[in-house]
Amino acid sequence: MQENKPELYTCLSPSLLSLYDVDKSIVVIIDVLRATSTIATALYNGAKSIIPVDSVAECIRIGKQIDSITAGERDGKVAEGLEHGNSPFEYPREFIEGRTLVLTTTNGTKLLHMALDRNAKGVITGSFPNLSAVCDYLLGQNQNVILGCAAWKNRVNIEDTLFAGAVIKRIGKHFSINCDSSQMALATYKEAKPDLYKFMKTKEASHYKRLTGFGLEKDIRYCLTEDGANIPVVYEDGKLIAG
Amino acid sequence: MQENKPELYTCLSPSLLSLYDVDKSIVVIIDVLRATSTIATALYNGAKSIIPVDSVAECIRIGKQIDSITAGERDGKVAEGLEHGNSPFEYPREFIEGRTLVLTTTNGTKLLHMALDRNAKGVITGSFPNLSAVCDYLLGQNQNVILGCAAWKNRVNIEDTLFAGAVIKRIGKHFSINCDSSQMALATYKEAKPDLYKFMKTKEASHYKRLTGFGLEKDIRYCLTEDGANIPVVYEDGKLIAG
Questions:
Q1: Distance in angstroms (rounded) separating the CA atoms of residues A76 and A213
Q2: CATH of domain B8-236
Q3: With an 8 Å Cβ cutoff, is B204 touching chain A?
Q4: ipTM of the complex
Q5: Is A190 within 8 Å of B191 when comparing Cβ atoms?
Q6: How far is CA A151 from CA A52, A169, B94, in A?
Q7: Which residue of A has its CA nearest to B158?
Q8: Distance CA A205, CA B183 (A)
Q9: Contact between B156 and A205 using a beta-carbon 8 Å cutoff
Q10: What is the CATH number of domain A8-242?
């Protein structure tokens, strides 16, 4: 007998989000390199909240209004007018604890706002550093799930897909999955699982090449490692907080 | 030293086509179950040409104007007003040789027209039955390539992605591939390669389930088998012809 399980879908690009029933689902925003990994890390290290914004100008504007740290990069450098970058290593406990971070990202923030505009039942962020927490959260909710890959300017990317595959590998059996993208994500993750970093390198993943061009191998390794900042991250009232 | 190879991309859904430089590329229309497999088969068996149209009404209209066979299905049955269905087994040589087929398909035809609207340098169709011919054709052209998956109502599907992966496995080294979708297609194909049919069945691919619901296992097996109708299929002046 078919159990009445909630449904799970993987949306490989923001351009495809309109194909899914966002208003009946919890959407997991996945931007592995590096936005959602850095967000999990900052909150794990005690940040009060993180305000995701989509432009440097907005980041500066909010930074002037409230007591906060502004952060964001463009082309691998701290954006002009902001104080910090996108690396998870910039946010250790001694720096970030109790503080609010205003973070500008492009792909992840765009998808997050699209999910909100479509009245998602809930929005959380996911990354390898908080993989277990994401899985536990989703199991606890017993709702339909959309694993939303932020991608790169709408182009499908490997690392976000791998994270979707990792979630499905862990908790897929608790969901009804009638979604070829999810099966492909799982197949790709299974091939990559023995060494995600090596897989990214061997496959010459486009983002891997961009970031290693900036000398960020250490960031990539951290962002592909499970449970280094294992805390659920939930969007509430304009902010990402520890769930 | 980096060779000056042409570029190859995989576009997993018509919704993503705008992200690629269609006007600088040959686009391979991939609609494995079953449009492009049936097209290759009919041409291999001597059909004069195939006119792909996007609606039953258009199919009937053209069928009245020219000496032709009209074909198309909706929900697994021959559409009302048309003569034949979408199965490759309906088009043996003794039936189709020398004749024109007007075929209505949804996903494949839509993508084909999108590629034409964007001034593709060339448009061909691809399927496992003509895999080798597609690869040889692309190598001979020495142009940039977009492997265009027709998908299912814009949702990514496994079978079209597998065909993209099969092409990349065969001839990828002759192209510069800076495209994560291509790497994912290749990874998925590698996992599936020992038995594509079993992979589709095990993964409960959405289209596999739809078609087996109509009793079409034999069609699926044929459509996943390499080189059963090994002929290049090229779009020219409104028609698909043997290249």
A1: 9
A2: 3.90.1560.10
A3: yes
A4: 0.92
A5: yes
A6: 17, 20, 49
A7: A180
A8: 8
A9: no
A10: 3.90.1560.10
